[in-house]
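Entry 14. Ran structure prediction on the chain below.
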Amino acid sequence: MRADHQEPPSHLPSGISIAGDLSSERDLSIDGTFEGQITLPEQHLLIGASARVKARIIARAVTIAGRLDGSVMATQRVRIEQSAHVQGHIQTPSVELTEGAQFNGTVDPNRTEAAMLVARYRQKQA
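Output, structure tokens:
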């Protein structure tokens, strides 16, 4: 495979419900229902408009268009779209909140890198 070829993201379609721990070496798109932990330390997570997610999320970047109840730790950024309903804690250096989005929670722009190193270590130990 060529180095400049990017694989398409993994996808959890609407109508599918999963509970548990999820990790991937590819970007991930969720349109269904998920409850548990999502670990994508080097990838992007997209929570689609039809998605319902209750999770602890660790990722490089997260875009939320659906419902999220939980915590997000992202090393680069979190974008909350107009259609999003988010309740929880966000830890990231950059947050973009689109007009019309619903957010009830806290944002911590500090300690993201240290927390991500701990998360990567724990993932390798599992």
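Residues 10-125 form one domain. Will compare against last week's run tomorrow.
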